[in-house]
Amino acid sequence: MDADLDTLATAFYAQADDLLKAYPERIPPRPRIGIAPRISDAELMTLAVMQALLGFTSEARWLRHARKSLRPMFPYLPGQAGYNKRLRRLGPTMNWLVGMLVHGTAVSSDDVWVVDSTPVECARSRETVRRSDLAGWAEYGYCASHSRYFWGLRLHLVCTLHGLPVGYALTGAKADERQTFLDILAGTPAMAGVRTDRNRQILIGDKNYYGAGFEETVAQAGLELLRPARKGEKPRAGSRFFKPLRQIIESINDTLKGQLNLEQHGGRTPAGVTARVIQRILALTAAIWHNDQTGQAIRRSLTAYDH
Questions:
Q1: Mean pLDDT of all residues in the chain?
Q2: pLDDT at position 198
């Protein structure tokens, strides 16, 4: 197979369709009596992945482009309202599909994970913050990496060194990174069972992942935590690996924001933001999965799919 967008879309659709047929309980329920959908869930998720990879942040513009250029691939295309509604309902299904694609790659067994969180801005003006349906979940926070305050959420991401997402969570901007990681660890079966699969799994994080209780819990889960020493601490083991490997998670975050437009998600409700963030994680996972299947040297490269 070639590494181009049409081939990725075809391979992803076939994989998603086969998985949904094998696990019909993952399909969002529909009323028994009513109009049958003219575009399948697998086709709609393929359309969503292509939207993210091509960098369309406006669903209206994306559907206009699809009607003009993608008719041979999608004989029927929904309107903007229908597309938006179906995409929100498919949020849990896309989340499940990410895990299934991860298991289908050779790089999922990487013995090094990197963990970090990155801001997902949801508003800037005070009036928007006051009126937003996200109030109560989204909140003001501070991004030390870019020395800026923001109002929104945080995406907590655990990845392999190839950029493959193995666990993630979307929380308020002030959520504790340590507790969020433990929640990800407990809620992701592939991560929780790591002790049974491998003898040694390394987790690399920044200085915020500290504390005797936290490190003990992580060790009991079969993980060896490597992080920089905090002020007043003795030098920690593995410090020579921090700079090059910490740069990897920053590069992954940049892929999500720079190429997949994570912060231009356009969501206005909790369900809308969640679906759009998962859409971009699914697009990244699908690209890595396809690059792995086609034997590409750089698994996280999206260059072949962004035009």
A1: 91
A2: 54
Q: Is 264 helix (H, G, I), strand (E, B) or coil?
A: helix
In DSSP notation, 62-94 reads HHHHHHHH-TTT-S----HHHHHHHHHHTHHHH
Locate 5 and state its tokens: 């967008």
Start-to-end C-alpha separation, the chain: 18
- Nearest residue to 260 via CA among 282, 280, 275: 280
CB-count burial class (<10 Å; 0-12, 13-18, 19+) for 118: buried
pLDDT bin (cut points 50, 70, 90) of residue 192 is low
Q: What is the pTM of this model?
A: 0.94
Instruction: Give the least confident one: 174-183, 246-255, 290-299.
Output: 246-255
Helix (H) or strand (E) holding 182: helix 177-187
Q: Which CATH architecture has domain 109-264?
A: 2-Layer Sandwich (3.30)
